[in-house]
Each structure stands twice: as structure tokens, then as C-alpha cells.
Amino acid sequence: MAILDIKNLNLGFQCEDIFRQALYDVSFSLEKGKMLSIVGESGCGKTMSAMSILKLIPKTARITSGEIFFNGENLLEKSQKEMQHIRGSRIALIPQDPMTSLNPLYTVGDQLLEILKIHQNLQGADAERKAIEAFEAVQIPGAKSRLKNYPHEFSGGMKQRAIIAMALACKAEILIADEPTTALDVTIQAQIMNILNDIKINNGTSILLITHDLALVSENADEIAVMYAGRIVEKASNKEFFANPNHPYSKALLNSLPSNRGEKLVTIKGQPPTLSQIISGCKFNPRCEYCMETCTQKVPPLDNISENHKSACFLNN
Ligand code: SF4
Predict the structure, then answer these.
(1) Ligand 1 midpoint to CA 288 (Å)
(2) How remote is the CA of residue 9 from the centroid of ligand 1, in Å?
(3) Rounded to whole angstroms, how far apart are CA atoms 30 and 138?
(4) Can you tell me whether residue 251 is helix, strand or coil?
(5) pLDDT by residue (tens digit) across 188-206?
(6) DSSP code of 120?
């Protein structure tokens, strides 16, 4: 069952007197207790899609159409006050830089206790017990004493664990993890991904993982959606995606994975388009080695190519 269902989301930015579209008919579903990863290069629209769910888009951005259903309720019809209640307590954000969520002036424990007071109505010994449990669940050693530390006394990985603990303490139903391990070294990245996986399995939490790193999702995500220039160009289960990648962009991303060392490491030629660049037809066409005439004239639809596998490419016709 889908806990989150995004339908035909269109969003753009007002750049002085020109409106530039950034998301085109973005649709995806996150199943309860599953991890869906949205993958793509920087600027492809993956973070903007995630921020739209939380209604935390920049002032210059505007959602022009679409629906975002959370447990059957359209979040786009909620007021900012209603969203304040949903954010943090029911849908929590794990940001790339944990310091954007932690206040350097208060101990991590005080911040966690405050969240428990606001969202769970817990205080005193009950709140402290819950805070220790949350720290232990994200494998922070010496949980009780670590609650007394300030954020600067935590390493990057520990700060990220503390943020995840705060989401756990609120019993968030969905975690949106936006490049949660980018700033961390490889060993810590794996630990954070294991913690997210444990939370998914043990608590039934649904996770939307935003990343540019296909290697990171290969062992963790249940479903994968690849975005390019504001559109979803391929969607499949993890197994199907890695066994039978279809879209030329997905294949290029896979070929550029460092795990292919030993064979020839292939980079994707060119750059993703900027918002102001106008490309007719398939937006990947300037970088695609299979580009045909029709690719420069029409946008390929995201069609089923097999069960639970969709791709937007004219090569499938
Ligand atoms: Fe390449 Fe054409 Fe497919 Fe786009 S539609 S990915 S340009 S072959």
C-alpha cells in the first residue's frame, strides 16, 4: 500500500519576468515500509520533488499542478500550520548537512527532549528514557552521557545519527533522507545506510532516499526512480533495475560507477541542462549516443516496458 503518492507534479521558478519549469509531471509512489530512492545528477529536480512533499520550496518556486497524497490526504491542500504538525512528527527530513537541523547553542539531548515534549507530549523521566532509547536505536554509544553533548562535540556521522534519532523519537512514518551520507566517509556512509535499513525493517518506516550515488542505493533501496532534467526517466524495482537497466541515461550512470574499475570507467559526456537551457524533445538528447531525429522533436513518454519497470525512451518503441 502506498503511504505517499505523488501525481503529475509540475513546478517552476519565477526568474524575474520568465517562469522556468523545473519539474515535469513527476509521479511516484512510496510503499509503506519500503525504501524508494530517487537518483540523478545535481540539479535534476530530485531535492525539489522531496521539498515539495514538505511544502518547503523556495519563495521563487511555484507548484503549478499535481497532487501529493500522504495516507490519502493531499498535502498540497494543507495550510502551512497543518504542515508544521506533519513536518517533523509524521514526515521527517534527514538533511545532507545535519547542522541545518541542530542548534549549536543547545545540547543534543535538550533538543531531543524538546521534540519529545512537542510531538509526543513527554516530559521528565519518561522523555529521558525515550531519548536514550532513540539514541541506542541509532547506535550512539554511551547514549545517556552523549545526550549532554553539544552538536560540535559530535562527529559528522554522530550528528546524522542524532537527527535520525529525533525522527525516530517522533515516530515519523516517512523519513526523507536528502543525500544523508554525502559529507561522510565511506565506512560511516555504510553505517548510516544500515541504520536506515534497520529502521525500515524494525519500525516499518517508509524511506525516500535522495541521492546521486547509485552504488549507495544498490544494496538498500527497494525501488529506484531515475530523474533527468526535471523528469522521471526510469522506474523499477532494485532487482529489475540493476539486472536490466533500460534508459541510456541510467546505463551511463551505471557505467560511471567506480565499482567498474578494472574495466574502462566511462564518464557521461556533457553536462545536465540548466533551467534556462531550452532543449526540444528528450532532454537527454545532446548527451545520448543513440539520439534519433524523433528524439529532438518529441518527449518520450514514461511507458511500461515490463511488469514494474517503466522507461521514457524512443528506443523502446
Ligand atoms: Fe536517447 Fe532518444 Fe532515448 Fe532520449 S529518447 S534517451 S535521446 S534514444
Answers:
(1) 6
(2) 22
(3) 23
(4) helix
(5) 888 899 999 999 999 999 9
(6) H
* Cβ–Cβ under 8 Å, residues 28 and 80: no
Instruction: Please give the C-alpha separations between residue 65 and each of 27, 51, 256, 278, in angstroms, as whole numbers.
Output: 12, 15, 35, 21
Contact between 285 and 296 under an 8 Å Cβ cutoff? The reply is yes
CA distance 46 to 117: 33
- Ligand 1, residue 295: give the atom nearest the CA: 2
Quick check: CB of 248 below 6 Å from ligand 1? yes
Rounded distance between C-alpha atoms, residue 35 and residue 148, angstroms: 32
Sign of the C-alpha dihedral computed for residues 244, 250, 251 and 257 taken in this order? negative
Contact assessment for residue 58 and residue 30, using Cβ atoms and an 8 Å cutoff: no
Contact 110, 166 (CB under 8 A): no
Give the span between the Cα atoms of 271 and 121, in whole angstroms: 49
Q: How much is the pLDDT for 264?
A: 65
Distance CA 295, CA 8 (A): 22
Could you give the 3-state DSSP secondary structure of residue 16?
coil
Please identify, by atom number, the ligand 1 atom nearest to the C-alpha of residue 288: 1
Q: Model pTM greater than 0.85? A: yes
Q: Which of 251, 310, 314 to mutate to test the pocket of ligand 1 (most atoms within 8 A of CB)?
A: 314
> Which atom of ligand 1 lies closest to the CA of 283?
4
- Ligand 1 in reach of 229 Cβ (< 6 A): no
| Residue 271 Cα to ligand 1 middle (Å) | 16
Q: Running DSSP on this structure, what letter comes out for residue 293? A: G
Tens of pLDDT, residues 48-94: 999 999 999 999 999 999 999 999 999 999 999 999 889 878 999 99
